[in-house]
């Protein structure tokens, strides 16, 4: 397994254990069928509880039966899951970083008691509803509303491209609370009288429908859907009490993007390993193609890019551990590491010749998945603008 500058030699016992457990789980339980799931457009839902039993959901959080492992251990877990498929890592990322994290960070004691153990064990599935049909890169312009009615809120709006929505028990829905009367919210989050709030919406409530988006050509081994909310009543106790404004959803995305920065390294590494093994095995012109300088250049470049991405991911975990990680650091790593995986999966596919376009080999599946990973959780362009603003002090979004 590519670890060119020996980063894994410095791992602690817990981190090695998580790495080995995740690798074994993936090899035995997921890898044999993942190509079939990708072709069928299905997620292996029978593994959701098993992943919970293995401690794959939010193991970096504490309390409520959660493991409180190091950020490096969490990152390694994401890396090993995505080395199999981005759909598998997305399952763990959404459940852990986008659903359990906001409940853990901003939820009431009752909300934590009710949801964290169930989500952690995989007995319940969660989803994160931020994106809307007309508002993706600029979620602050969201149109989904919540209005106070007695001791309840009434939600109206629609969310789309929501991972796990069709199989979720609970959705974390971000909506503008217009109970104070809607001001001129415009495209920003300036309005104080319609702040963005998080609502825990059980998906079996009247007025909630979740349709599956089934024509994807990327992230096929993952369930994606829409959430329609029509006059959905939720008790006021379902509001996340600890946060108001875009800080709520954006802070969750920082957690999830940290996992993506690590996960992308796993996908790229898997492509590299497949290409290296294939090059050693495949004979043309009287010997293995690995003896050709053209193929060696591809492997050398791939290994260098992956190692650079690995270093960034490890450093990110150190910064997160000591509380110095900024959203801009995460933007740089998400942007760089996903681009690396996207580019290198294509090179790996090329090295596999015609065989490389089948589901028998992983690079083309990873390559298709990377189109989603490059786009979700902030597109590559948006992270470029985040860095541009941080480096110049000038925002260039509008
Ligand atoms: C498979 C999948 C799963 C997803 N899961 C979830 C989920 O669980 N929850 C959730 O809330 N969302 C989810 N998303 C949505 C995802 O986060 C959005 O697709 C993403 O934020 C981009 O929004 P958009 O698709 O509306 O594209 P747009 O915002 O319309 O962007 C279109 C293009 O314009 C570019 N662009 C936009 N603004 C600018 C600008 N200011 N300057 C330069 N270029 C710009 C973008 O980079 C992009 O190339 C998922 C998406 C996919 C594909």
UniProtKB/TrEMBL annotation:
PROSITE patterns in alphabetical order: ACYL_COA_DH_2
Superkingdom of origin organism: Archaea
InterPro entries: Acyl-CoA_DH_CS (IPR006089), Acyl-CoA_Oxase/DH_mid-dom (IPR006091), Acyl-CoA_Oxase/DH_mid-dom_sf (IPR046373), AcylCo_DH-like_C (IPR036250), AcylCo_DH/oxidase_C (IPR009075), AcylCoA_DH/ox_N (IPR013786), AcylCoA_DH/ox_N_sf (IPR037069), AcylCoA_DH/oxidase_NM_dom_sf (IPR009100)
Domain Acyl-CoA dehydrogenase/oxidase N-terminal: 13-123
GO biological process: fatty acid beta-oxidation using acyl-CoA dehydrogenase; fatty-acyl-CoA biosynthetic process
Keywords: FAD, Flavoprotein, Oxidoreductase, Transit peptide
EC top class named in words: oxidoreductase
Reaction equations catalysed: glutaryl-CoA + oxidized [electron-transfer flavoprotein] + 2 H(+) = (2E)-butenoyl-CoA + reduced [electron-transfer flavoprotein] + CO2
Protein name: glutaryl-CoA dehydrogenase (ETF)
Swiss-Prot/TrEMBL cofactor(s): FAD
Similarity comment: family membership: Belongs to the acyl-CoA dehydrogenase family.
One Pfam family hit: Acyl-CoA_dh_M
Pathway participation: Amino-acid metabolism; tryptophan metabolism; Amino-acid metabolism; lysine degradation
Domain Acyl-CoA oxidase/dehydrogenase middle: 127-232
EC number: 1.3.8.6
Recorded GO MF terms: fatty-acyl-CoA binding; flavin adenine dinucleotide binding; glutaryl-CoA dehydrogenase activity
Domain Acyl-CoA dehydrogenase/oxidase C-terminal: 245-390
